[in-house]
Request: fold
Amino acid sequence: MADKILKKEKLGALIESVTGKGGRFVAPTTDAHQVVFKKIKSADEVAGDYILARNSFKEFLFPQTEVVAEFTMGKDSVDMRGVEVHAPQTVVFGARPCEAASLAGMRALFTWDFVDEFYTKREENTVVVTVGCTKGDDACFCTTVNLSPESTEGADVYLREAGDSYTVKVISEKGKKFLEAHAAVFGEGKAKEDALFMPEKIKEVDLAKVSARLKDKGHYDDPVWAKLTRKCIGCGACTFVCPTCRCFDMVDEGTAFEGERRKNWDSCQYDTFTLHASGHNPREHQHQRWRNRFMCKFHFYPEKFSSKGCVGCGRCIRVCPVRLDITEVMVEFSK
Ligand code: SF4
Ligand code: SF4
Reply:
């Protein structure tokens, strides 16, 4: 395929082309002084100057809440009915390479012992267009987890800023079809690419050592957990913005006679997350809940799914009200 470029002035035409075919176009936009991923309708809504959207685009594949079944209670029976999966054709534009890399782990989780078609159908109908980062901050650490602004894992199309254009690289078959479907918007040619922002690798972090220490259950009662995480207030914000966090709860809502079963985001940082009906809680203290989250990122995901549990986006650091920095824990467990 010849070199392709996308002129920034053609972004509006791309949005129209996608929405005109009935698709939804999701991009970082400014809302209440924050850049967030939202469904948009025009190019002037797209944020031009941002590091990373505050939220992950995961909510367009795995919504905060959704109905997965409906039920009616009879005198001696329950009628449970499945619902249609709402999986519109979607383009996620302007995602960063780190967060696109989270998709492998999400898919592994949602197809592990049961295929969750609510997730898989949406993911299949989504084209992820990433843009290499030309800006970053001190919370970015993708290079420490072996990714970079040049990574294309999880992307369908990878763009690079190039003055008033983007250079375009097709990554997947889905990306190829996307370019073909909106061919009039893309031009042929080359452009001089802007420099990428390359976060400095944290040299004190050794992922192999982190993994080895977490494998040995001896760390469970190490007082270092309480020491490192004592300021955590258990708000759960880190889990909601994290592109790889995907815990959910099933809740029945309605009356005693009929209602709906909902799949709602949950957080392992809440004390009720593991609370048993007996009143016993195996993760009674906040540092135990934090330990679980860290193990999920650097032990459970890599061991079980051979995928990354943390992509180094730094969202959890930026959003944390007490600035608990996951990289400090990575450093401690690299010793
Ligand atoms: S743990 Fe933090 S840095 Fe890692 S992927 Fe989640 S939000 Fe990003
Ligand atoms: S955002 Fe910070 S305070 Fe809130 S649960 Fe996560 S680590 Fe704890």
User: Anything to note?
Assistant: The radius of gyration is 21 Å. Residues 232-238, 269, 319-322, 324 surround iron/sulfur cluster (ligand 2) (CB under 6 Å). The first strand starts at residue 4 and ends at 7. The chain has one domain: 4-332.
